[in-house]
Design goal:
Protein name: Serine phosphatase RsbU (Regulator of sigma subunit)
CATH topology of the largest domain: Phosphatase 2c, domain 1
Organism: Saccharothrix longispora
Number of helices: 11
Structural class: alpha+beta
Largest sheet: 6 strands, antiparallel
Strand content: 25-35%
CATH superfamily of the largest domain: PPM-type phosphatase domain
Helix content: 25-40%
Mean pLDDT: 92
Strand order of the largest sheet: 3-2-1-6-5-4
Keywords: Hydrolase
Shape: globular
Distance between the termini: 31 Å
Radius of gyration: 22 Å
Oligomer: single chain
Number of strands: 17
Low-confidence stretches: none
Length: about 400
Amino acid sequence: MTSTDDAVIGIEQALRTSPPHALLDTLHARLRSDFGATGTELLLADYKLSVLQPVTRLPETAAPLAIRTTTAGRAFTSQRVLLEPDRDRDGVVAHLPVAVRGDRLGVLVTRLPEAPDADVLPALAELATALGHELVVAERDTDLYLRARRRERLSLAAEMQWQLLPGRGCARAEYSLGGQLEPAYTINGDNFDWSATSDRLTVTVSNGMGEGIQAALLTNLAISALRNARRAGLDLQGQAALADQAIYAQHGGACHVSTLLLEFELATGDVSVIDAGSPRMLRMRDGEVTLVPFERQLPLGMFDGTDYEVQRLRVEPGDRLVVVSDGVHAARSPHGSDYGSTNLDRIIRGSHHLPAPEAARAIIAELLDYHEGTDLLDDAVVVCLDWTGAPSP
């Protein structure tokens, strides 16, 4: 074992025993002593995925860095380690992506007195990943990192929705996926959820009717009911039925949740689908974007005892699936023109080279540009899934 390996092991142990609020201080102290680092900064992606927010001693804040136009932003979007000369002193600056199982959190910026040896850069990248895992755990015990991500105050409904999410991305050998909500700081009823086992991936995209806390509470009920059914071992029909009953029992048909439920068999690419409302799914295969037609059924909770039928399709390696709520496919500009399928197809094709989480962000960014800087008139959710297929035995 090399001295670099020993250093990595020691730093990972130090992070595990660090107080949750002191992770960055602990990491900087060890990077300075073990690698000669002259500075360490943690940048976390804000809820809008437009800037990287420096983690400082709150309530003080430092200037954010734009994701689109900075080296740190390029490291975040590409998920690659990037080096650049240190403009303030001799040496280099390493931009290290911080992610957990495909969920992109931010970038660790480390200043080094000289270009790192061949074995040092992978070690630093490994430590950035270890930091990501510790951040996820630390958020159970401190608000520091959640507060640092906020460029502005979240509405109460948005607070509820973001806490409900499983993350903003995940990846396995068979697939990679990512999602984004907008307006990020005032989202109401749109949401997404996913969960995987050894042989299946379940994805849901939901749109609770109404606005504000009412919509957030309604979606929370739907997601919680779907999770409860899934964790009890119910199939897709059972999950839809239980959520339908829970919402109807609470609201008597006055409120409903439009939901698209997808269950992928990881070994075969077979997909079970229940389309209970407005979310739409588009597929890009061999460069062509097409709407995947489903028989639309009643939204969850609209009537008592709705029977839901499962539909089937198969995905092939190389397919990209994009699920959008009506806040995307039915969006209108400030001048009243429809966003429409033409614009959506164009940005899906134009973002084909991007990883799934970054493609979801790009589609949302295009939608915001279409609105010319004005607030969206409706919630928008985008989930993008790249299907790789089961690895060869």
